[in-house]
Amino acid sequence: xxxTAIRNNWTLEEIQAIYDQPLLDLVYQAxxxxxxxxxxxxxxxxxxxxxxxxxxxxxxxxxxxAARYHTDIKVQALLPTETVIAHAQKAKDNGxxxxxxxxAWREVRDNRDxxxxxxxxxxxxELGMEVCCTLGMLTEEQAVRxxxxxxxxxxxxxxxxxxxxxxxxxxxxxDNRINTINNVRKAGITVCSGGIIGLGETHRxxxxxxxxxxxxxxxxxxxxxxxxxxVKGTPLEDNPKVDAWDxxxxxxxxxxxxxxSTVRLTAGRIEMTESEQAWCFMAGANSIFTGERQTLxxxxxxxxxxxxxxLQHLGLQPMPNKKEVTAC
Length: 328
Ligand code: SF4
Known about the structure:
Layout: H1 12-19, H2 23-37, E1 42-52, H3 81-93, E2 98-103, H4 112-126, E3 130-134, H5 140-149, E4 153-155, H6 165-168, H7 174-186, E5 190-192, E6 195-197, H8 203-214, E7 222-227, H9 244-257, E8 262-265, H10 274-282, E9 287-289, E10 295-296, E11 299-300, H11 304-313, E12 317-318, H12 322-327
Helix pairs in contact: 1-8, 2-9, 3-4, 5-7, 8-9, 9-10
The structure holds iron/sulfur cluster.
């Protein structure tokens, strides 16, 4: 039995009051709610693969894949379907239950590349993994095609607050983001949407972003919380490193206002100690991205053996594959 109700009518003041609590009180509240909705011993292990890298026409100021910034990231065309499926199989063998494919596109176009992505979705789905894609903006019809191919989740982060959005990206607006998320929902695909801290936003912006997520008619099933990965050559390369306690505070608040969602400790783990990550798990994070390639898209990330060792130290275990458990 759960006693904390899921609410979609949060106010900014309420979320601010949660966020501003003394840290230990906040973590205690989040950990308590986390245990009502989730098994606190289980962490979902996911793998993210860049299926098309760089050369993106957008100007997201944190991103090394934007064509206009001079970064060390190599442009790579859409990977062959067999290569992607082989990566997914490897990820599954290493304990991942969710496989996310990312393409550096502004939006999906109805062309042969999209047909190939549809084949990739079908192929990964056949492996019995949760399939997720992040491909940029999406129409309702395209979302339906992905759903019919077996797509489980679509990632489209808000990145930051509505008020701060234009400081970070000028080539699209916040409403475009919401529109794609609505198209994903209408198609019956689960929503993965969160944000990044360390972009130069205020605490109020962070709270406002959580408010947008927590007042959606249905909370995103998946909420990634990222710390800015500072990429050389991007406008934000010299931003200060995100304080680990800020990540803990953000994760705990997300956990309290969206109790049933999977809160993912995403980018920035490479700069966190094992103890700092443990605090994030205590605060309600219940997923990490890992893999043999030791990258998260195009930025460094801990490798799978290091992560498995960390989970073991902390008495945590990879979440079983729900699709396979259900099938059994
Ligand atoms: S975050 Fe995505 S949309 Fe923005 S520049 Fe990078 S690849 Fe393009």
